[in-house]
Records
---
Amino acid sequence: MYRFLIMLMILASVVQANVVENALDKAADMALAESRYWHLLLHMPGDLSEVDDPAFFLAPDGRENAASELNATITALYGETRFDDNATGCRFPARRTWLQKTLGHEGLPELQCTAYETLVRKMDPQSVTLVFSAAHINSPASMFGHTFLRIDSSYESKMLSYAVNYAAGADPDKENGVVFAIKGLFGGYPGFYSLLPYYEKLKEYRDTEQRDVWEYDLDLDHDEVMAMIRHIWELKGVYNWYYFFDENCSYNMLWLMEIARPDVDVRGHFAYHIIPMETVHATEEEGLVHAKHYRPSKRTLLLAYERVLDGRGETEAMALADGLLNPIAVLNDNGRDPQMKRYTLEAASELAEYRLMKGAVDKAAYSERFHAILSARAALGKGETLPVTRPRNPDEGHRATRALAATGWRDGTPYQRIGIRPAYHDLSDSDVGFMPGTQIEFLDLEARYDRDGAAVEKATIVSITSIAPQSAFFSPFSWRMRAGWDQSFLSRDAVFGTTVGAGFAAGGTWGYGYLLAEPEIFITDKGYGALNTTAGVLFETGGGAKLAGEGGYRFYADGMRQWTGKVKHTSRLSQNNALKLSFEYTDKTDGPQRSFSATFVHYY
Amino acid sequence: MKKVLVSLAAVAALSSAAFAGVNSQTGCGLGAMIIKDDSSAIMLALQATTNGTSANQTFGITSGTSGCKRMPLVMNDRAAEFVASNMDQIAKEVAIGGGESVDTLAELLNVEDKAAFAASLQQNYNSIYTSGDVKMADVLDNIATVEG
């Protein structure tokens, strides 16, 4: 009897060994190790996987050897020794499903993947949406925006969907800012995928950070969505080193889209740096987007309340939020239009929340006020819905890289310029799709050619501007920083200067004006400190066109003084082409310098 | 660009928010249900295990049970989780007379007529939000009572 059982076990293992052998042979015949899908499953764009966590690989050299990882995977899946959550197939459902489809399920054991099945039941995945959370005013870290995917269920409400996010496992509040930036740039943090209810992401981006949210529904069918889900499960708890410029949040979503639909090549749109909005453009170009939606941020809502409220309403809303006015007084004020009272109380509740988020009020006092305001608001019954102006969709904005060619006169002499800027947007570029008043530039390079030959006109390393107009409810700083070579110094060549300055701005639908004080350092043979005082104004002139003027008076430490001024008009010819006409005036040691130029700009 | 605050923090906040609101003495037994289901609040499916709950785990509360009056609503863990995490947003929308969160709650409670539901919640604001520090379980209980 025992002998029979032992014979049976040996036979079973021989059969199993044969099953594995057959699968391995078949995979070798089909050259599966070289197939695109296998490389997608391994996040392997070339010969090395971008996943850094050894736990993602079954073969010791799996990270750099797709064939040996495939053999290890086949051996494990076709020769499973455990059949529950601990099975390799439960850990790697995407690999298993793909192999089953390509090699056949002969010999592939049945599994009970309880944890995975529970997740799928709970998520109930039906469709996928790419979500772009736009720039957060005044925060350079967010100025490129952020993207993540949302897995939609059969629920009508999208709030019940789940967000698939990729983020570095670091807390910027606990790290030194410089260390944080350096580690972020060069892969010092592990990045993880995570899954959260969408309403949590909305609270984070739309409410706390006050960023407008744009949703792009993807045209993926249920099978494609399920392929993505299986792969997301495989990435559970697995880390990749996070790289700010390329292997970042947005980039890591692209693998998931290609896993869902392998014949799209969204990653192929990128060479060296990935800007979140660019992944939206790439996704649209691959034909994946079929519907778009907008969710205004808390800030956008409050600005909309400012537009419908009169001065008294604004004052009362602030007093209510600060606990200086009893909501009953507003409720019982018979002299007021009921709709104005509704808006006042609604704005007050939003403001009260805003104050709480800013830490300006403690939770207990807030709860009391918030409750009283809402109780009064409820008593006024249903009113009109707040009209919120929807900004132009970011996907209508210009692309990230800019090339330009210019011709003009400088002090009566003709000259030409060419330039390139890999990223991203400046105040003179059309604001269609961008938040007005924000500028973020990396490596803006321009060369000039005139009768004296070629020279560097400008070489910006980094330049960030945040012109944030003051309003009834908001009183932000405006600020600007820059480091690089340009023509603003007293001499007639490009000089390196760096500055961080701040001031205030005011604005409306017409545009905005600003005043800034900017301490500067110029690096010359002597070294120069200076203080620049600047006043600027920018008018939106319709159709994405704008007229910008800025004047400055600079006090140098050695007593020199300098006027600068410029006027620039930008016409938006199309989404990715623009024409800029400009006049610039700069005092130089040897007299004033005047330039006129016409610049053709192309974005791609 | 990247949001570096780890999602774990959000999850911790979410779960604590849910549990902070738990009161096992609530009339319809919702609180007890949530305590029993110890994973429902922790939705970080990729970093936490997901045992203990399933999507179709709903609790029908019919007439006369657990001290509730006739109750046409179907209470479930998903609704509790949602309310716990969106207390202020829901309060705002109830006061205004509707919105996406109120619609979501209506869907979770299998309410057909969302407009009537929103209007009724608005009319009964003071019975649902009885004080500034009302808890999630109370809000749901009160909604159940008001709609009952």
---
Amino acid sequence: MMDAVISTLIGALTAMVPLVLTSVGAVVSERAGVVNIGYEGILLMSAFFGAIFAEITGNPWIGLLGGAFVGMLLGMLHGFITVYLKGDHVIPGIGVNLLALGIVAFGIPAYWGTAGQHQVPSNFRIEPLIKTAYGSLSPVVIITIVITVLTHWVLFKTPLGLRIRSVGENPEAADALGINVERYRFLATVYGATLAGLGGAFMSVDWLGTVTKQLSAGRGFIALANMVFSGWNPLRALLGGFIFGFFDNLSVWVRTTPAVQKVIPWQFVATLPYLVTLIIVAGIIGKVRVPKWDGKPYKRE
Amino acid sequence: MKANIKGFFKPLVESLIAIIIGMLIGAIILAFSGYSPTEAYVALFDGALGSKYGWAMTLSAATPIILTALTFGLGARTGLFNIGAEGTVYFGAIAAIIFTNILGNVLIGLLGGIIAGLVWMSIPAFLKVFRGVNEVVSTIMLNWMAYFIALYIVLQKIPNPDDPNKTIAVPVSARFPIVIRGTELSWAFVISVAAALIAYYILWHTTLGYELRVSGYNERAARYGGINPKKAVIWSFLLGGIMSGLAGATEVMGRPPSYAISQGMANIYGYGFDGIGVSLVGRNHPIGIIFSGIFFGMLKAGATAMQIEAGVPLEMVRMVQGIIVVTVAIPGLLDLLKRGVRK
């Protein structure tokens, strides 16, 4: 029993990575006032391209960076449409999600010649930092924690963070102080999408080691829910990500335990992370404060 | 009057430009992937529009996505991003199979789809109204829950004892008559067009529709005008639920040859996502949705021909759809292009 607890906790640390990276990215983006619901698509596309980069170069770390690069490009697209063209914040996100479904569904058979699923060979996957009998711990888990703490520090303890928050809270005042609102919003959006790209590539070149068109499995949206849960705070997003990662991992563990399978159909257990997300979001709304100009285009008078 | 015509044609032209850009980028990606774009597109258009059979397949493919697009479109007109059509379709199809097997009748099947849609879509509606839960997050979570719950029902509750690859079928007495023999086009297509016309009538010719549109346009103004935005939100979800519930029902009652749900829910999967694209290209307008639904149906119908004749994976069509939607998201596309030309 103790073994199961330890291995589930280690599993939760792994499962939290894409959620935390995406949530922390979303926190920065929304603190600057840009809503992006395209993270689901960014996770999926960067997982796909991350695996390709890893297999071409033979280096999973380049795969990881390649995924971050794809996220960055998609963030630039989103930032260009929302910040510079003053477009709607939600529609381009929906577009990116649909685009990802298409590109990955087309790309898997077109690139690897296999239908529906591609297994990333083990020599193209990131070596675990620690290997134990209870499971292994990826170095990316450490990187995720470092990125989260650093982002938190920059956001709340530095002048740069103050400027990022000011363009999402009161862009008129920020503008009057000579802060380039559009540039900060654009860069915050790109940063958010880059982190999500890192998280996406982590799924294919490290954690799951596979590419399917359902790989992101709603994690982009769970990350957004986690961002709300965190109250737009990176450190709390880390905690929330761990909780969601726990349920994500628990559902896999319960599904594959024969004794449980007899009592509860595995399909019901599989709904667990989504049900938990819904319950938590429904339970905390109304207690959080959204950045004031979140999702609103800012046009200079 | 002139402004009116401009207001009608501008979105139409912008959607057409988005479609052209989407197909051009698709062509570039095809060329990069080592396929011949011309061969692929010729096969696609010829397969979908080159014959009576192709047209029938195009219209039958348009049937469910017009309905799921109405779910998103009705939401968008009320200021909501309801992306829960996907999960609702599953339950609409399951309910139609169960209802018609109890009482074999087309109307009973449609009623089953409607009830399933109302029940499932009332969850995000109540979460939104009473708990302030953002519908984008709730409907996506509900889609995933629906996927697993529906999979359980399909595998454990209504499997076909003679064929493990599908569920029990809708009885012959509850199937839609086929319009053109040998094709998949049934009278179910009429249901989707009628639903679009009813949605149009509700939105622009009833008090409820006025309330829905005003709440979508400006919630504060709506409240000031004595309209309860909560009521509008609930109605928008419920009407949307009816549409995508019907999409699932018509799919199993009006699509030969199986009249059942196939393995992995392959024949009812993805319509909710397609519907979002259809609605956005149709500018969330029921009449626009009929036309963009037929266009997306054409892409779907032609995809098979493209795969057989040009060897291009039929998923290519999904990619082109995605690019079109991203392009649609660019505001004032026409003005941007004009400015670019002048420079």
